[in-house]
Structures are given as C-alpha cells and as structure tokens.
Amino acid sequence: MNKVHNNKAWWLVLPVFLLVAFSAVVPMMTVVNYSVQDIFDQSSRYFVGADWYRQVLQDPRLHDSLLRQFVYSGCVLLIEIPLGIGIALSMPSKGRWSSLCLIVMAIPLLIPWNVVGTIWQIFGRADIGLLGASLNQLGINYNYAANTMDAWVTVLVMDVWHWTSLVALLCYSGLRAIPDVYYQAARIDRASAWAVFRHIQLPKLKNVLLIAVMLRFMDSFMIYTEPFVLTGGGPGNATTFLSQTLTQMAVGQFDLGPAAAFSLVYFLIILLVSWLFYTAMTHADKQ
Questions:
Q1: Which of 155, 163, 156, 142 lies closest to 234 in space, CA to CA?
Q2: 36 occurs within a structural domain
Q3: What is the pTM of this model?
Q4: Is residue 32 part of a domain?
Q5: Strand, helix or coil at 207?
Q6: Neighbours of 173 (CB within 10 A)
Q7: 191 in a structural domain
Q8: Total structural domains in the chain?
Q9: Mapping DSSP to helix (H, G, I), strand (E, B) and coil, where does residue 38 land?
Q10: How far apart are CA 137 and CA 240, in angstroms?
Q11: Which domain holds residue 232?
C-alpha cells in the first residue's frame, strides 16, 4: 500500500522562508551590489569590479584587526570552554541548589551587551571603580584606558564573565542527558573521577561542545558593543577588532564600497573558520 504524503505543512514554513529572505538575503545582495560599485551619491554610481576587494585585502588595518581578532577569539575559547565544563561538573544535579545555580548562571546572559560594557567601564576605573581602585591600592598600576595589556585583559575578563555561563549551561544539559547506567557501570568497575570524565562524560559532551565552540567563536569574532563601550577601541588601536574597523570605514568615513567588500570578506572568514571547526570536530567524533 502506497503511503500518502501530505505536503501541506510546507505552507506553514513558507512565512519563515519569506522572513529570512527579507531580513537576510535581500540585505546581503545589497551589500554585494555596493561592493562592486563606486558610489558618490544616489544618482552617481560606477561599476569597479573587484577593485574594492583588492584594496581591502591589501589594507594593513584589515591585517592588524584580523590578527587581533584571531588572538582574542582563541583566548576566549581556551578560557571559556574548560571553565564552562568545570563549572558544569561542579553544579549539583538535582534539588533546590540545582535550580538556584541555574538561575545564578543565567543572570549574566540576560544583561544587554551595552550595559555589560558600561558596568565594566565603571568597575574598572582607577579612581572610583571597585576593581581598578582596589588594584591600585594594592600597588598594581592598573589603567585600562592607558595601558594596552590592561585593556586587553579587561575586555577578555569581561567576555569570560558574560559568556562562560552559556558554555556551562550547555555542558550541564549535556551531563544531565547521560544515562545513569554509565555511572553505575563505572562504580562497579571502581573507576576514578578522572576516568569517568575521560571515558564517559567528555565523549558524551562532544556534540554539546561543538555547539558551544561554534557559538562562542562566532560571537567573539563579531564582538563590537562591549569593547566599544569599555575602551572605544583603545588605547590606540589595541582593542579595535574587525567589527569596529568595519564600522569606522562604513559610518565614520562613509566608504560604502570598501566597507561592503570588507563585510563580505569578514563574513567569508567566519563561515570558513566555522566550517573548519565543524569538520574537525565531527571527523574526530566519527573516529
């Protein structure tokens, strides 16, 4: 007997496709159009082909910002992924304390990005900030507005404070999904805590960690609001990342053509690196 397929459900998905086309595809095609034109005003536009792409790829600002961005994203992943796993392992699995821990861990994720930057801007001030004033009273010359290393560390710690909770909550949900029979077998074999983590918990967390790594890489690679509010990209260009360089080019200088080409290169870099992460982790999972 032939099975009758009902395709009416696709009509329910159609509004989603239209919304995605309106909010993503159409702006993307507009950016592509800008990237191959030299725009003087609404009535004066000239086709320049790939000239803007060549100019952007040879721009030293792109090279400096790209290196700075990769270093920052690498530091974020190296800190937040192990820290999130550790926090998830230390959280209680059930009871009231479990609910309380989940609420506390979710609080930083609810704070808007610009508010996070403002909080740390005040918190790190050397004159009135709790962190900055305390460090200076201890004899540590701390000033994120004037010292490059202080600015870097402050932006990194701010990101760790804001987003480690996401990794911890993802890992916690992955740990709770592991069947109890694995732990029972480990207790029968008298496996150590490290052996349980190495052979049971970590393999079962691979898919969750893939999601966490992808989300944190893409978000850290596109970071803009927090460092802009905290340091304004300074001191100098020490905390000027790719998104800020793009904004300065598009809004500050109003170079729409180079900015459009820059944004497409930016998008392709994120897409390529995310694909490499996904391919590497899925290949390791299959092995």
A1: 155
A2: no
A3: 0.83
A4: no
A5: helix
A6: 13
A7: yes
A8: 1
A9: strand
A10: 29
A11: 57-284
* CATH code of the domain covering residue 98: 1.10.3720.10
Q: Which two tokens stand for residue 163?
A: 């987003």
**What is the amino acid identity at position 103?**
I
Mean pLDDT (the chain) is 85
Tokens 């159609």, residue?
14
Six token digits for residue 71 = 């270093």
Whole-angstrom distance, CA of residue 93 vs CA of residue 164: 19
224 in a domain, yes or no? Answer: yes
Q: Please state, in angstroms and rounded to a whole number, the distance separating the CA atoms of residues 212 and 207.
A: 9
Query: What angle do helix axes 96-110 and 148-176 make, rounded to 10 degrees?
Result: 140
Q: State pLDDT tens for residues 161-192.
A: 999 999 999 999 999 888 889 888 888 888 88
Q: How far is CA 136 from the centre of its chain?
A: 31
**Cα-based distances in Å from 212 to 48, 82, 195, 216, 218:** 40, 11, 23, 6, 10
Burial environment of residue 151 by CB neighbours within 10 A (0 to 12, 13 to 18, 19 or more): buried
Q: To 10 degrees, what angle do helices 256-286 and 26-35 make?
A: 120
